[in-house]
TrEMBL record:
The Reductase C-terminal domain, residue ranges: 337-407
Taxonomic superkingdom: Bacteria
PANTHER family membership: APOPTOSIS-INDUCING FACTOR 1, RIESKE DOMAIN-CONTAINING PROTEIN-RELATED
Protein's name in the database: Putidaredoxin reductase CamA
Keyword Cell membrane: no
Amino acid sequence: MTSRNAEGHAVVVGASLAGLRGAEALRQAGFAGRLTLVGDEPHRPYDRPPLSKAALTGEIAPEATALPNLHALDAEWRLGVAATGLDRQAREVRLADGATLSYDRLLIATGSRARPWSNPTEAGLAGVHTLRGRDDAAALRRALAAGPKRVLIIGAGFIGCEVAASCRALDRTVTLIDPGPAPLARILGQPVGEIVAALHRALGVDLRSRTKVARLEGDASGRVVRAILDDGSEVETDLVVVALGAVRNTEWLSGSGLDDGPGGVLCDEAGYVLDMEGRPDRAIAAAGDVARFPHPLYDGRPVALEHWGHAVAQGEHAGRLLAGAATGAAYAEMPAFWSSQGGVTIKSVGLTEGADAMVFAQGSPKEGRFVVVYGAKGRCIAALSFDSGRWLPAYAEQIAARAPFPPIRVGVDLHGLAVLQPGFPEERTSS
């Protein structure tokens, strides 16, 4: 490696999982210059998946979720201060405290934040929560420990479902409001969504599908007391969790000339960020939730992934890239995620978006242990398991090989099994 690649100042904006692993990869690849990590939270990097599960039920404390350092960093930390602007001509990052950081190479890993309730006044009522960070989890844990009469969860995506299951584990009364036909139907299709619905009803969740909250109402002291649904009915509640997805943190890049729309910062195949004319800036890479990149497994369609393993892999890839140690290969990590709800472990590989068919390839929904494989245009694109994760590596191989759909398992042709329509809701949008 040349001295040019080994020296200089590397700035990582975003002190979470992707940023941490990216910084470590820079060092491991031989970068010996100055290294600065910027984070808008006051905390060192911590693990987010436990926040909707064990941190809520009290199995672990939110502050016990710190991520380990896997490699010595020798870095300067600027925590509790957000990045507010990027000047690519001057190669400077502007910070909320008025300081600027010059850089020779920059990793954008600012992630995403919880989408707030649409009405700011209602969102500001006491008892209305979102869940994204460690402080959010600590506040929600305290509220749950206080014994609310009813927890109302708005949104039945993964966070909403995990919080609902955690609340039931605490024996709290829960109403889950889902605008779609079934929980997770937008991502997993309606047949699987109905299985998730049955799981939550068995846990004792009051699940109301095809329903929306029209507004939240508070009392004279400013505490939430009820939700008015779109059909005019009311739900009395003193604790609301808004779980309506994530917003990618790209606003600080406004005016930088980068392609930084609401879907994330657009990158090329290698991981360099692109400007509005589609030209790569070879001093800047992006990783994690905030990065939108063309995935070769999905015909180069730009995707942005909110998965733990992806943040690790793409962070490491970006670190090597900025250190000048990348091989030039496109980033092509297999998407994968997991979720735990009511004692059931749900795992997935690949992406279901664009699926036009699905088949239950292992086990059965009646047994509660199964694998679903999704197909698009005659090839396998994703697989999902309920308490059957051991089968997923074999299906991941088929997805990577662009194997035909329906899949073939252990030499047994599955064409005799029922091929179903995924039944994604009409409003389903791109990642």
